[in-house]
Amino acid sequence: MGNYxxxxxxxxxxxxxxxGLQSMDQLYRxxxxxxxxxxxxxxxxxxxxxxxxxxxxxxxxxxVYKKIFRGAGAYHHYIPAIVNQVTSKESFITAYTPYQAEIxxxxxxxxxxxxxxxxxxxxxxxxxxxxxxxxxALAEAITMCRARKKNRFLLAEAFHPMYLETVLTYFxxxxxxxxxxxxxxxxxxxxxxxxxxxxxxxxxxxPQLNFxxxxxxxxxxxxxxxxxxxxxxxxxxxxxxALLPSAAECAADIAVGEGQPLGLPLSFGGPYLGFLxxxxxxxxxxxxxxxxxxxxxxxxxxxxxxxxxxxxxxxREKAGSNICTNQALxxxxxxxxxxxxxxxxxxxxxxxSYEKAHRFAKAISEIxxxxxxxxxxxxxEFVVISEKSSEEIENKLAKRGILSGLPLNTSYKQRxxxxxxxxxxxxxxxxxxxxxLTEMNSDEQIDEVISILKEA
Length: 456
Prior knowledge:
Blueprint lengths: L8 H11 L4 H4 L20 H12 L7 E2 L12 H7 L2 H4 L11 H18 L3 E2 L6 H11 L7 E5 L4 H10 L6 E5 L1 E2 L2 E2 L1 H5 L6 E7 L10 H10 L3 E5 L18 E5 L15 E5 L12 E5 L5 E5 L22 H38 L4 E3 L8 E6 L3 H10 L2 E2 L2 E2 L2 H7 L6 H5 L3 E6 L6 H13 L1
Parallel strand pairs: 1-15, 3-4, 3-7, 7-8, 8-9
Antiparallel strand pairs: 2-10, 5-6, 9-10, 11-12, 13-14, 14-17, 16-17
Helix pairs in contact: 4-11, 6-11, 7-8, 11-15
C-alpha cells in the first residue's frame, strides 16, 4: 500500500479483511491505550499572522540557559562559525540521503569524509553513514553480532538508561537474552563479568565513559570477550576520544556513540546522529549507508554507494536492519566541525573539559556537606552527593540563569523507567546530582556556582 491510507468505509473494510482483522482498533492493538485518541479537538483555522503570533508566544515560554553544567548524553561544546556557514548552504541543507548516487557527488563526498573521520576517531577500519542517535547505534551493533547459536548479550548497566531502554525496545519480540553487568563503586563489576561462562554469549557491550562519568577498563572487557569468542561493543564519547585509548587500541570489534558533541547544538534534544565503526571483517553486517571511493570512466575520483546488498532495497529478505536513512545534514555538521577543529583542536577541547571538570570537582568537594561520590577516574562528568535537596540547588541556580547538574532523584528514575541507580546512590540518604563541564564553562562561571553552593 506504500503511504496510502484507506479513507472510505469500504476501503477500510477491504484492508481489514485482507489483514484478518475485525476493526481499526485491532490494527493499533500494539500501541499503548494512552497514546490512542478517539478524536482530535482542533481549533478553528487561523491566519498566517495569527498563527505566527501564537507560536512566538509559545516559544517565549522556553528557557534557554547560557551557563550549562549538565550533560547526561547531550553536551554543550563550542561550535566554530564555519560549521553553520557551510551547512546552511542550500545545496546541502535541502539534500537528503543520496538515492541517485551518480548525480549526488557532493553529498556522497561529504558522507565519505564523515566516514573517514569516524574511522580516525575510533581507529577501526570501517564506518557507515550515520544512524539516528547513539542509542540506536548500540541496538544496531547488537544486531550485527547475532549468530545462530549465540543469543546472549551482556550489557553494562552503566550505559545511559535511555540506551538500554532503546535496546530492549528494538528486541522486544526477539529471542535474544540480555543480562546486565552490575555496578560496583561507580564502575562495571568486571569480576562478575569474568565469572560468566557459556558458549552462547554473542557480545559484551561496555561504554568507555559510563553514565556516572567514570572511565571503564574496556581493554580488559575486550580481552575477556575474545577469550570466550564473543564480540566486544564499545561506547565512545567522540570528544574524550582525543585523550583516551581508541576503540582499536582497546581491541573493540565495534564502536558506537552519539555524535552530537561534534558540531550539533543542543536544540532541545535533537536531531542528533549516531556513529558506528567496526573491524573490516564485519563489513557485511554493518547497517545503513556506506560510501566508497572509485574512479569514473575517465579516471577521475568519484564516489558511490557501495555494498548495497546489505540494504533493504536490495535483497530485502536478507537485510539485518531497517535503517534506511543517514542523518546526512547532521553528519555533515560533524564533518565540518572535525575538519575545522583538527586533531589539535579536538584534543584542546577535551583537555579543557577534563581540567575544568576536575577543578570544579575539587572546589565543590571542599564545601561542607558536599562530596564527590566516586574517585578521580572521570573525564568531564561526575556525581556529587549532598544533604541539600537537589531540587533546591537546581532552582537556586536557575534563578541566576544557570542549568545545574542533573538531579538523580526519584522523578528522573521513574521517567526513565529505572529500577534503581548505582548501589552507592541508592544506599545513600543524601541527594545525588550528575555534573558536567566542557570548554564552555569559564572560570568565572565555576566560581559563581561554587559561591552559590556555599551560600546554600
